[in-house]
Amino acid sequence: MKTKLLLSALVLTTASLLAADSEPKGAVVAAAKKLAGQSNYSWKTTVVVPEGARFRPGPTEGMTEKDGYTFLSMERRDSKTEAVLKGGKGALKTDEGWKSLSEAAQDDGGGFNMTRFAAMMLQEFKVPAAQAEDLVAKMKEVKLSDGVYAGDLTDEGAKELLRFRRGGNEGPEISGAKGSVKFWVKDGALSKYEFKLQGKMSFNGNDTDVDRATTVEIKDVGTTKVTVPEEAKKKAS
Q: Beta 189-203 vs 173-186: how paired, if at all?
């Protein structure tokens, strides 16, 4: 009897310790799910890269409705690109009008094309609530300090976030990948997060150092109204 009681106490203690270790990570997942359960919300994404970096993305403004459309306005270089997503499909506004993501991603004969690049990136796009859960899954552990949930990414998680798959290919070779993530929660729901990535990309014999910090700020929860042009709806269906 004493042995059974001792084993039961050991099991309960171990379970309690495991629960304590997973509590911060579970809290972030719950906060992301609470955001996902809202009828709508907006956000702003900003990316900071070192001075002189070849690719300097501008801010992205996004709006989404539960089980509805997601609308994005992305600033890149001296231009602004709009996109609409829904149910794994989407459309991108181009100089020739709205095109489906598959149309916009078609190879036009070589050379860098911002529209094609954006279309391929959007095929793997995740709204903030979903991206936050994905980030948590790629973290070693999450700790709570001064109201902020934070931790480092696994090496493989950082590598995956850095890799860009072009046309179904694996993309450039990644080395030295590392990163960290921070989450802010307000009233039980995700309100902001930031992830930093560093590493080296090797593509066609050319090495590029990557060092960027991405911040996503959630706003207008429950009051966002997503308006989508009819032409975009047709192309995104």
A: antiparallel
